Amino acid sequence: MLRSQKGKESFDTLKRGVSLVALLGLLFGVLSGASVVSTNLYRSHGLDNLAIAVFAHALNATFLKIILVGLPIALLLYFLHRVVRRSFRALTAILSAAALLVLISRYGLWSNGLGGETETGRLVSLIMTRFILVLISFGIGRLVYDGFTLLHSLVRIVPFRAIIVTLFLLGAANSADYINHTKNFPRGPNVILITIDAIRPDHLGTYGYSRPVTPNIDRLAREGILFSHSYTVSPRETQAISSILTGRYPRAMGVQALWDQLGAEEVTMAELLRDRGYGTGAFASLLPPVGDSGFRQGFDHWETANRFQADRVTGAAIDWISERNKRPFHAWLHYSDPSMPYRSATGSAEFDYGPTRGCLVFGHTMLDSAVVDRALQLYDEEIRFVDRQIGRLISFLEETDRLHNSLILLAGTTGESFGDHDYRFDHGEYLYDSGIQVPFILSAANLPKRIIESQVRTIDLFPTMIDVLHFDPLQDLQGKSLLGVIERPETHDDRVLYAESGESLTPRFNSGRPVATVHGKLRAIRTGEWKLIVTPGGGDRTFELYNMLEDPAESLNVWQEESGVSQELQNRLDSWLKETPAPPWNGGPPPDWVLDNRLPVIPEALPETSP
Q: 480, exposed or middle or buried, with CB in 10 Å at 0-12, 13-18, 19+?
């Protein structure tokens, strides 16, 4: 046979091989996508958009993997066909057998004999096992060759081959969706994280509030997923934000006080997205002493200030997003406006603690009902101001055609107490629901409109984002993705919440906090039905148990009456503390601002006090 004819025949074999690889990639890709969609019951739960996105991602991932493995094999076979054409069939069978033997060895079958009581018997059985496996591998290799020969015959048909090559090109282009998660080929939805300090869910319309305070947040909830029972793992900003950004408990990260720093070894949401090619920008109002608290890691652009009001936060974010045209972006907007002091939008009115913060916070100073009502009105004005700025952001995303391609995550960092358990206009010291229940909303075009009644935690936000974006899961995350809850809410139980309070900033007024240091944290476990709060103090601990279904106000402590439930929850809380050890705390004593600024000297003659 002439050399040119041999070369043409070998090249035809290469083309058929490439077409065959494309065919197998598409075939297994379709099967993989269908399997994922079927297993997770997306269609049966009305998640059609998500089903399409997951199907495409699984198809692309499988297709790309087969192409990356198959093309080098096709080139190797082309080389062998040209060099040793007469032995091509035998070599193909040998290579197939070798590949099977590698797989057998990898799964430990190669080193396992058939058994035997003596050393000689075990050796003989091992030799027999290997001999049998070699024969089986060569037999399968021969079948593989014959099967590929049959497929080669199919792809000889010119129109069919043209279709396969076309599909190969389309699939290769579409596989950019799979490799989008690398920094070299960034592609995917924008990720916008909105966090708000001191925001109670029961002051939002979507949670049932009667005043029209939050029309824009309510819209996000209507067009997305509302988690109606969501809780923060700590009612202090530093700890709460740390857990949202990392998906880990604050105690596990050593973030145990308001003035602690998030360690550089922790992987944040911004770091993960930046590594996937996203542009990252933060626009935050972080009250002292929080500062950046290590939150800056992962952000290309960082813009923050004390009392950076909501309009400035949103304006800075819009300016930065306007310049993002080629790459997907991750923007974090953090609003602190609802935190004390409460101000009107114009700044003409303000409600602050006054000169005796501790007396006011812990109910030792009586307030006229009109003063309390005015404080609540100003608090609502703060929330309304933040809501307007969120509406401004949403309008901008719509006008610039970015909203449809954005995943929006909105979560409160802490709640706010308005007199519950004689604790007023503050958060952080206690673990009652007024301080730890927060809003949580997730919105994206390919996700359903749904209300989730199950109990969830803000620590679940980061792993949920990872799941929605189809990223590979991270190690050491302590939160769990909520995608399964979204897909099949009726089949999922409440997530158990473990929470720790912040340090006591006013210990001299707080009789409920006998240990004033960071080691005196209150701890709680909350299920859907029960909550156990444990208060440290000296050598003893005090316990509060509440039936949250029958007593949502947490007014009746049934710790003694429900001793069985109390003991079970106490054991579970103690087990969690052992399984989540806190690193040694090196924060030292509270900084000067705690004593000088937050604990002013109290006059000897106090205003009228409660008994």
A: middle
> Which DSSP string do the residues of 388-425 spell out, in sequence order?
HHHHHHHHHHHHTT-GGGEEEEEEES---EESGGG-EE
Nearest to 76 by CA among 84, 138, 162, 142: 84
Q: What is the pTM of this model?
A: 0.73
Mean pLDDT of 340-346: 82
Per-residue confidence band for 484, with pLDDT thresholds at 50, 70 and 90 = confident
Q: Give the pLDDT of residue 432.
A: 96
Q: Residue 537 and residue 515: Cα distance in Å, rounded? A: 6
Give the helix ranges, DSSP H, for 84-118.
88-106
Answer for the pair 412, 232: CB distance below 8 angstroms, yes or no: yes
Query: Which of 298, 248, 304, 307 is CA-nearest to residue 269?
Result: 298
The total of other beta-carbon atoms located within 10 Å of residue 216's CB is 18
- Judge residue 125's burial from the number of C-beta atoms within 10 Å of its C-beta, 0-12 exposed, 13-18 middle, 19 or more buried: middle
pLDDT at residue number 476? 85
Which residues are paired to 499 by β-bridges? 524
C-alpha distances in Å from residue 318, one per residue of 147, 402, 520? 58, 12, 42
**Strand bridging mode 190-196 / 406-412:** parallel
Cα 145 from Cα 161, distance rounded (Å): 20
Provide the mean pLDDT of the chain.
Answer: 79
Residue 510 has pLDDT above 60, yes or no: yes
Q: In the 8-state DSSP scheme, what is residue 498?
A: E
Which three-class secondary structure state does DSSP give residue 383? Answer: helix
Residue with tokens 């952080």, as numbered in its chain: 428
Tell me the C-alpha to C-alpha distance, in Å, between residue 4 and each of 8, 18, 78, 158, 534.
6, 21, 15, 22, 85
Beta-bridge mates of residue 411 = 195, 440
| Rounded Cα gap, residues 38 and 42, in angstroms | 7
Burial of 49 (0-12, 13-18, 19+ CB in 10 A): middle
**Residue pLDDT, tens place only, 385-396:** 999 999 999 999
- Tell me the per-residue pLDDT of 224-255, one tens digit each, with 9 for 90 and over: 999 999 999 999 999 999 999 999 999 999 88
As a whole number of angstroms, the distance between CA 254 and CA 262 comes to 8
Q: How far apart are CA 245 and CA 461, in angstroms?
A: 8
Cα dihedral: 63, 484, 481, 431 (round 10): 170
Of residues 200 and 187, the one with the higher pLDDT is 200
Q: Give the full edge-to-edge strand order of the sheet including 190-196.
A: 301-305, 279-285, 329-335, 190-196, 406-412, 440-443, 225-231, 450-457
Of the candidates 465, 399, 379, 397, the one whose C-alpha atom is nearest the C-alpha of residue 220 is 397
Checking if the pLDDT of 144 tops 60, the result is no
Q: What pairs with residue 283 in β-bridges?
A: 303, 333
